[in-house]
Amino acid sequence: MIKVENLSYSFNDFPLLENLNFEVNTSEIIHLKGKNGSGKSTLLKILSGILNNFQGKVLSTAKNVFFLGHNLGLKESLSVKNNLLLDYRFNDNAQLLDEAYKLFELDSLIDTKLFNLSQGQRKKVSLVQLFLSKYDLFLLDEPFANLDKKGIELIKSTIVSHQNRGASIIFTSHEAQNISSRELVL
Amino acid sequence: MKSFYYKTFQRDSKVYLSRSSSFLGPIVFFLITITLYPLAFGSDEEQLAELASGIIWISILLANLLSHQFIFNEDYKDGSLDLVLASGKSLFVWASIKIFVNWYFSSLPLIFLSLVTSFMLYLPLDAALILALTLFLGTPILSMFGALAGALTLERGNIVGSSIVIPMCLPALILGILAIQSYKNEEVLFYIFLLAAFLFFSIPILIASCLGAIRLHFE
């Protein structure tokens, strides 16, 4: 799915990633680990096409990429419902959306504006798209952060279901997660 | 399934409507400014009519400055821009939609208001219609320059953006004012065509410049 060859990236002349080589196969879950500032988020941004001033090669056969960053891409002044319906990644499956509201315990908050929600609830809103989307490649930066135990389990099962569908997933997390096929340490 | 671009339009429109300061701010600012000019210059009809075109154009330019930070800045801060870049969709079309929505909510109401306020400043009807036409052609240019300033200063404040955008907008402002002032002569067409040409050439150049400026923040 992805082949990275001799990837290097510098930020303000500070070398962040140096000579990285790895491959990600179809239906694989990769846990990207590393210290703070080791370049995990940067690597995900390079793989997703957000950053492209790197050295080396990134070859990808993924037709579409789902990216979830530290900043969730949600609008504070919009309701939960509008944030989800107007996200370009939403596949217009209203029935599944109703199911997702219940699963993520957002059914009582659908008309609530985002600025009234806690960090954990906002995270859940952004993760509803992860549940609904059918992408080839998922790049998830700290998907478990700010979530309660139930939320973490829900995201794990969502990731595994995407894997079973044939998608590849790369996620970053400081905690050990038991769903990954292998770990990649920066 | 609704397209990426249609959703961008809908989402931005809803954000503007849900956050009244983004579109009411320029309107209130414009009305206050326009009301202050007669108080400062007195109620001499001839003098106000002579100054009206400049007063309205300058007020609209200044009112526009209040809104240009909304075009890309919020998307950059809340991570929406990351998602757009990762989507692989045409950034040119995306940026065009965002600038159009900004123009629709920030400038279009001002064009209609300027028609009303032009009578307050004793501008003759013929000149007021030319004023509306020049604003239709000129305000998209102001929005695009505003977008460029916003894109260049994504991580900085509004003041830096404003100091960039005002000098760049001067040609549009001058052409607009000259067109209104020569509404009785044939020269009016010349200025209007120049303004139209300015708009026509600005669209690809300024939107591409916006994308270049945005890309600079991801280097």
Task: Walk me through the structure.
The complex is a heterodimer of chains A (186) and B (219). Chain A is α/β, with parallel strands linked by helices and 186 residues long. Chain A contains five helices and eight strands. A five-stranded parallel beta sheet of chain A has the order 5-6-7-3-8, sandwiched between helices. Chain A has a three-stranded antiparallel beta sheet with strand order 2-1-4, covered by helices on one side. In chain A, helix 4 runs parallel beside helix 5. The longest helix of chain B has 30 residues. Chain B starts with a helix and ends with a helix. Chain B is an all-alpha fold and 219 residues long.
Order of helix and strand elements from N to C terminus of chain A: EEEHEEHHHEHEE
**Which class do the helix and strand fractions of chain B yield?**
mainly alpha
N-end to C-end Cα span of chain B: 33 Å
> For the report, how would you describe the main beta sheet of chain B?
none
Question: Strand-residue fraction of chain B?
Answer: under 5%
Low-confidence stretches of chain B: none
Which structural class is indicated by helix and strand composition of chain A?
A: alpha/beta
Q: What gross morphology of chain A would you assign?
A: globular
What kind of sheet is the major sheet of chain A? 5 strands, parallel
Which H/E pattern describes the elements of chain B? HHHHHHHHHH
Helix content of chain B: over 70%
Total strand count of chain B, please?
0
Q: Overall pLDDT of chain A, averaged?
A: 88
Provide the spatial order of strands within the biggest beta sheet of chain A: 5-6-7-3-8
Question: What are its keywords?
Answer:
heterodimer; A: 186 residues; alpha/beta; three-stranded antiparallel beta sheet; 5 helices; 8 strands; globular; B: 219 residues; mainly alpha; 10 helices; 0% strand
